[in-house]
Q: What sequence folds into this?
């Protein structure tokens, strides 16, 4: 499973939704996959949408878990973080400070409560990654894509013609359930699933629910 450009084992330079989608299309071609389910969580949901729109012959179905949506206007903080100089400086300060707080046990406890039970060991891993310069650069680039690229996908969503599932947590504080409902309403035939008591980190905290939704999607797609 690939990381996004600029992260993890994939490495390289971070990019927006379209470039990430193009990278995935090349990966599918390289491994000889004719069609695939494309599943994205949070920001990567935008990549899944871009894949379905730009490479429809490669996409058998789309899974969107706590996904960003072109119908959700960027907030003031999002717009500030997307500004080339001011935003990048804010990203550095925000992520480095958050990384230090997560290195502190009370800080991890508070974050775990805010994120509805995120395990302490995963928060420790986040603390390390958020203090790296490569993460700062990648986050800043993706924040700009969130503000400048994502809205353009909105008018194109009705052209998605593959089975789609939108899964949202009922108490998600990052991407509200209302955002997921609106996203599903703008994709023809999309199924909406609301996870009672689910927060934003569905793959980490509700893996069984995510896996079941993907299996149902696969049954509709192949």
A:
């Amino acid at each position: 499973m690939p990381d996004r450009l600029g992260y993890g084992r994939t490495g390289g330079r971070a990019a927006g939704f379209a470039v990430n989608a193009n990278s995935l299309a090349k990966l599918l071609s390289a491994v000889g996959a004719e069609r695939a389910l494309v599943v994205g969580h949070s920001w990567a949901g935008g990549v899944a949408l871009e894949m379905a729109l730009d490479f429809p012959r490669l996409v058998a179905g789309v899974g969107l878990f706590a996904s960003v949506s072109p119908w959700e206007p960027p907030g003031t903080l999002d717009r500030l973080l997307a500004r080339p100089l001011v935003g990048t400086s804010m990203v550095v300060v925000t992520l480095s400070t958050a990384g230090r707080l997560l290195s502190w046990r009370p800080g991890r406890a508070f974050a775990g409560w805010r994120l509805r039970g995120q395990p302490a060991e995963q928060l420790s891993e986040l603390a390390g990654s958020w203090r790296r310069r490569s993460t700062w650069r990648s986050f800043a680039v993706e924040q700009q894509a969130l503000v400048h690229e994502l809205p353009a996908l909105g008018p194109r969503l009705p052209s998605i013609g593959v089975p789609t599932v939108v899964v949202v947590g009922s108490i998600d504080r990052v991407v509200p359930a209302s955002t997921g409902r609106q996203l599903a309403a703008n994709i023809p035939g999309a199924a909406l699933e609301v996870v009672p008591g689910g927060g934003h980190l569905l793959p980490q905290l509700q893996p069984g629910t995510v896996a079941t939704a993907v299996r149902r999607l696969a049954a509709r797609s192949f």
About this structure: The first strand starts at residue 36 and ends at 41. The chain has two domains: 17-74+157-221, 76-143. The first helix runs from residue 17 to 30.
